[in-house]
Amino acid sequence: MTAPRPPQRPPRPRTTPPRRRPPQGGRPVRSGKQDGRPVRSRKQDERPRWGMRVATGLSVLVLGAGGIGHAVVSSLEGGIGRVDPFKDMKNRPQSGHGTNLLLVGTDGRDTITKAEKQKYKLGGAPCHCTDTIMLVHLSADKQRASVVSLPRDSYAEIPAHTDRTTGKKHNSHPVKLNAAYAEGGPTLTVRTVEHMTGVKVDHYLEVDFTSFMKTVDAVGGVQICTARPMKDSYTGLDLPAGTHRLDGGRALQYVRSRHVDVGSDLGRMQRQQKFMAALVKEATSNGVLLNPVRFQQVSASVLGSVRADEGFGTEQMLELGKAMKDFSPASSEFTSVPIGNPSFPVKGIGSTVQWDAAKSKKLFQALREDKPLAPAKPKPAAGAAKKAQATLVDVAPEEIRVQVYNGTPKDGLGKDVDAGLRATGFNTTDAPLNGKLRDLARTLVTYDPRWDRSAKSLAAALPGSELKAVQGQGATMEVTAGSDFTKVRPVRAENKQTGEFATVTGDEVVCP
Question: Which residue of 164, 218, 306, 458 has the fewest C-beta atoms within 10 A of its own C-beta?
Answer without folding.
Answer: 164
